[in-house]
Structure formats: C-alpha cells, structure tokens
Amino acid sequence: MKKLIVMDHPLVKHKMGYLKDERTETKQFRELVNEISMMMAYEATKDMMLKEVDIKTPLQDTVVQQRDYKNPVIVPILRAGLGMVDGMLQVIPTAKVGHIGLYRDEETLEPVEYYCKLPVDISERELIVVDPMLATGGSAKAAIQFLKDRNVSRIKLVCILGCPEGVEAIHEAHPDVDVYLAQMDPKLNDHGYILPGLGDAGDRLFGTK
Ligand code: URA
Asked: Which residues have a Cβ under 8 Å from the Cβ of 150 and sit 6 or more positions away?
C-alpha cells in the first residue's frame, strides 16, 4: 500500500536547482513553486477515474472520457502550502480548495488545529494535501489525521522537497496515503530542516526573511 512517487523529469530537476539556490529571490521562488506544483498536479492526477460519455461532434456521434467523480479538493497546510495552490489549480481548475492550519502546543508538543475550512461534502471527494516541505512529517501527519477524523478516505500528499524521515513518518502513520515529491534530499538536521534543502519555504515564498 505504501506508495512514494518521486518525479523524474528533467524540467523538474532544472527548476529544483533554481529553487534551492540561495540567490533566488522571492518573485522567482514563487514562480518556481507555481511551475513545479503544476507538474506535480499532472503527476498526482494520473490515476484519476474516467467514465465514458456520449457526445456529438459537429460531424457525428462519439464517445469521450470525462472525470468520474466529484472535483478533488486541494488542501494547503498553512502557511507555506498556499504557495502551491495556484499551480495545482492551473491543472485542475475546477478543484475546490480547503485550508488547514496547525501549531505546536509548547507544553504538550502536540500539533493543534487552529483553522480548518473544507467543502461540506468533503467525505465524497479526493483530497490532495499540499505543503512544499516534507521534513519531520509532523504537520502533514497531523493534518491528514484531522482530515481523516472528518471521514475523508481518499487522500494524497504532494510536497516539493522531502527526505527519508518525513516519508517514513507518513508511511508509518498513514500507509494508505500516496506521497508525491518533486525531489528527495538525503537528510534532516537537528533543527528539523532538510539538507541540503532550500531553507524555510514559507519565508522564501512570502519574503518574510
Ligand atoms: N520547513 C521548511 O520550510 N524547510 C525545511 O527545511 C523544513 C521544514
């Protein structure tokens, strides 16, 4: 069941190089996240179910294929996940967008949900949870659990840069959730940052550093 898909495309590799480069400024960083997210949306929807539909072309009757289920829901984990939404929507323009925000309780160290707004029929849709970095996996693991608590059963996790520790954490807690990465880096440092990584994705996206 545990599935990890790491993108293997020269354009993704090329864009990842610029994304990681410390000289890349906020505007270009944002554009790169957008472009990589588009390519990841393409990859993450490859198994989308289709049904046959009868239509007429201007010349004759024919059968075409169309999506079989309700639109998926893109769920960015606040705040860095927001940077991936536009790119995903360019490929899946009819998708809904939900939001989830978590913080870590300083005493218990447990993730606490501080914001969650989702479509009402969420349990009938596939969810694509997005967050650029899969580091310790703590936030994604908790966000996925909070979503499962709302009766969602079909969830994918799409992150741009990951590391083995993060993938392992998700696979252990949620073996049913397919993990998509644009690239995998070798390790985490003692502060939970991916190495070589790209620094703080939220700060680089929003120019807060
Ligand atoms: N979050 C980030 O923004 N960067 C990391 O390297 C790890 C977590």
From this structure: 118, 122, 123
CATH topology of domain 4-206: Rossmann fold (3.40.50)
For ligand 1, atom 3, the nearest C-alpha belongs to: 200
Backbone phi and psi for residue 27, each to the nearest 5 degrees, phi listed first:
-60, -50
DSSP labels, 129-142: EE-SEESS-HHHHH
Query: Is 80 exceeded by the pLDDT of residue 141?
Result: yes
Position 39 confidence tier, pLDDT thresholds 50, 70, 90: very high
Please, what is the average pLDDT of the chain? Answer: 96
83 alpha carbon – ligand 1 mean position (Å): 14
Atom of ligand 1 nearest to the CA of 200: 3
Is the CB of residue 34 less than 8 Å from the CB of residue 26? Answer: no
